[in-house]
Specification:
The chain is α+β, with helices and mostly antiparallel strands. The chain is built from 16 helices and eleven strands. It has one domain (7-398): Cytochrome P450 (Cytochrome p450), CATH 1.10.630.10. A six-stranded mixed β-sheet has the order 1-2-3-9-6-4. The chain has a three-stranded antiparallel β-sheet with strand order 5-11-10. Helix 6 packs parallel to helix 16. It is globular and about 65 Å long. The chain binds protoporphyrin IX containing FE (HEM). It comes from Streptomyces griseoviridis.
Length: 407
């Protein structure tokens, strides 16, 4: 391949944050891998083709372990050093994932269903009570629903949710080295205290379950592994689901024919959620991968020694070679095989919970809010300036029609 200049995605500014797809389509037309400068402030190899992305996600020569990045500090004091499965390779990854999957059973997910319904109903009820019929679907719904559920799953007091929102947003979407590290350190300190509390007063939640295992099984998670897991679940399981609910509802509200079709036939619900994930999923890219030896992706040779690779879930899901007419939002299409939940050994194991929340949320919103409509020009909505996570800080809607509510 001829040497390509670095593609400066950061310079594309708000326009790219709002709609990255034309840029990704252009890049894909030139090849499946490009060297890019990200709005997050660093340079990486970005994989934009579907087949190449899928293959890269299960390529054992690409490491998730930060210790394979050039100049990584492997110190116990570094908050990033709290090991968790998403920043681990086998065999550590295999051990950590197995220990958690044992506790994160289908039964535990199913047991959360009544709570998902209850919180959904409460949140919709509160929005409908507003005199002006207006709401911010992120603040009033898409954020608090998964926040309540992940807190319930982990046994984190829901009163602390605002702190979590700040920490997890800083870590995922407003990436700024020093602030993100400070947020992570605060979250870390909080979770250490929480674990002490679980030890003293165990409940039915996941963290208590893991603490209990510790007493029975010496291979069980250590304290720092449990903190790492809790951080991972809070970040991975919370901002992502918020993004699915808000990006997905925006896609639906922008396509009234699809909205009407779904309202008329809720047997389309599962397919609609998959299409929301494919068309408007919240994970722009995978987490970092580092080369441990030279690799060839598409026609690009990438050196070994810790080159940073990001695998583009969002661009892969719009690859016309895999999904015909990929920019069309079509809840009847075969969206299976999308990469919104990743692929390979790190594929999201929270997917059943995310799907449960999305199906419940979307159906209840459509059933209880027959006049639900956007309350902003979709072309002017602000998006977080991140390539790794795609999300909206706000999504103004009208949850019910109010005569003379003005505009
Ligand atoms: C719509 C919601 C969600 C989306 C789009 C999503 C997406 C993803 C993706 C793309 C990965 C792989 C990242 C990579 O390979 O670099 C991942 C991993 C993971 N997700 Fe999710 N996720 C969602 C919700 C959740 C929930 C609700 C939980 C937990 C309750 C969760 C827990 C995890 C964990 C623990 C991993 C790491 C798995 C491993 O390294 O083996 N996620 N997720």
């Amino acid at each position: 391949m001829s040497e390509e200049a670095i593609v400066d995605l950061a310079a594309l500014g708000e326009e790219f944050a709002r709609d990255p797809h034309p840029t990704y389509a252009q890049l894909r037309g030139r090849g499946p891998v490009h060297r890019v400068l990200l709005p997050e402030g660093f340079t990486a190899w970005l994989v934009v083709g579907y087949e190449e992305a899928r293959a890269a996600l299960s390529d054992p020569r690409l490491s998730n372990d930060w210790r394979n990045s050039p100049g990584a500090a492997d110190t116990e004091d570094d908050p990033w050093a709290n090991p968790h499965m998403l920043i681990s390779d086998p065999p550590r990854h295999t051990r950590l994932r197995k220990l958690v999957v044992r506790e994160f059973t289908p039964r535990r997910v199913q047991a959360l269903e009544p709570r998902v319904r209850e919180v959904t109903d409460e949140l919709i009820g509160a929005m409908l009570e507003r005199a002006d019929g207006r709401a911010d679907l992120v603040r009033d719904f898409a954020f608090p629903l998964p926040a309540a559920i992940i807190c319930e799953l982990l046994g984190v007091p829901f009163d602390d949710r605002d702190k979590f929102h700040r920490w997890t947003t800083q870590v995922t979407k407003e990436w700024n080295g020093a602030e993100a590290e400070a947020a992570l350190a605060e979250l870390d300190g909080y979770l250490k205290e929480l674990l002490d509390d679980k030890r003293a007063r165990p409940g039915d939640d996941l963290l208590s379950g893991l603490v209990r295992r510790r007493e029975e099984d010496e291979d069980a998670l250590s304290d720092s592994e449990m903190v790492g897991l809790a951080v991972l679940l809070l970040v991975a399981g919370h901002e992502t689901t918020t993004g699915l609910l808000s990006n997905g509802m925006l896609a639906l509200l922008r396509h009234p024919d699809q909205l009407d079709a779904l309202r008329a036939d809720f047997s389309l619900l599962d397919a609609a959620v998959e299409e929301m994930l494919r068309h408007s999923g919240p994970t722009g890219t995978s987490l970092h991968r580092f080369t441990t030896e030279p690799v060839r992706i598409g026609d690009t040779d990438i050196p070994g020694g810790g080159e940073l690779i990001l695998i583009g879930n969002t661009p892969a899901n719009r690859d016309p070679g895999r999904f015909p007419d990929p920019d069309r939002f079509d809840i009847r299409r075969e969206a299976g095989g999308h990469l919104a939940f990743g692929h390979g050994i790190h594929a999201c194991f929270g997917a059943p919970l995310a799907r449960l929340e999305a199906r419940t949320a979307v159906r209840s919103l459509l059933e209880r809010c027959p006049d639900l409509a956007l309350d902003a020009d979709p072309a002017r909505l602000a998006w977080y300036p991140s390539v790794m996570m795609r999300g909206l800080p706000r999504l103004p809607v009208r949850v019910r029609a109010v005569p003379d509510a003005g505009s």
